[in-house]
Design brief:
192 residues; alpha/beta; 4 helices; globular; binds NADP nicotinamide-adenine-dinucleotide phosphate
Length: 192
């Protein structure tokens, strides 16, 4: 079934200085203690309803390995029963039937396999895969959750971008936790 209305969203949380993890992959800095009096609260019912609008997730193998590690430590699986497509050239453990591995041409995979089958496609990391999606012009939208912390070095949100990507800001939300959520449309104009 063709789905011309499909939408590819790149989303991650990052430090104010643009890192999604420390160089060794740790995300311990994500637990921040800031309070912003004028901010919104995340309503759990809203979050639950919102997550239902996502049709599938795409991630790189290192993000998948982090997710498996989190699950093994008792923090659960963040992607519910939605299909999760893991990009990898390796033979990784498959712990649930909703996980599918893919290797090969990313543009072909997104445009010919995912877009016809899913409306809302979320690319949830890491920096290598998100950078690749933007570099190849595959993303329609970027959602960037900025956490109130600077960590100095680490893995960048958009790895290996070799060109400028023009964006149009469509939403800014500040939360009581001090997190700022930015939502941009990718305009598609190639700047250089
Ligand atoms: N802050 C956040 O919101 C957030 C979100 C997600 C992840 N993270 C963190 O980010 C770190 C992982 O990010 P990362 O940038 O190192 O790795 P990544 O993007 O998760 O995974 C990259 C790997 O995916 C595989 N791959 C297959 N096809 C690919 C393609 N077309 N483009 C790119 N990669 C492809 C390759 O591994 P193979 O060798 O398997 O082929 C590649 O090394 C973890 O520490 C994770 O915790 C943070």
């Amino acid at each position: 079934m063709a789905n011309s209305d499909s939408r590819v969203t790149v989303h991650m949380a990052a430090s104010l200085d643009g890192f999604i993890a420390r160089s060794d992959g740790r995300v311990d800095w994500m637990e921040t203690s800031d309070e912003f009096a004028g901010g919104d609260t995340m309503d759990p019912a809203f979050v639950e309803a919102f997550l239902k609008t996502i049709d599938c997730y795409v991630m790189g193998s290192r993000t998948y390995e982090t997710a498996l590690d989190f699950e093994a430590k008792g923090f659960g699986w963040s992607y519910g029963d939605k299909p999760v497509f893991v990009l990898t050239s390796r033979d990784l453990p498959r712990t649930r039937t909703t996980v599918e591995f893919h290797s090969g041409d990313l543009a072909q995979f997104v445009n010919e396999r995912l877009r016809p089958a899913f409306g809302s496609i979320w690319v949830v990391g890491g920096g290598a895969v998100c950078g690749e999606c933007l570099r190849l012009g595959l993303a329609d939208e970027v959602r960037y959750s900025i956490l109130p912390v600077l960590i100095g070095s680490g893995i960048r949100f958009f790895g290996n971008l070799d060109r400028d990507v023009a964006l149009h800001l469509v939403e800014v939300k500040a939360y009581k936790s001090g997190m700022v959520g930015l939502r941009y449309e990718v305009t598609g104009r190639q700047l250089r």
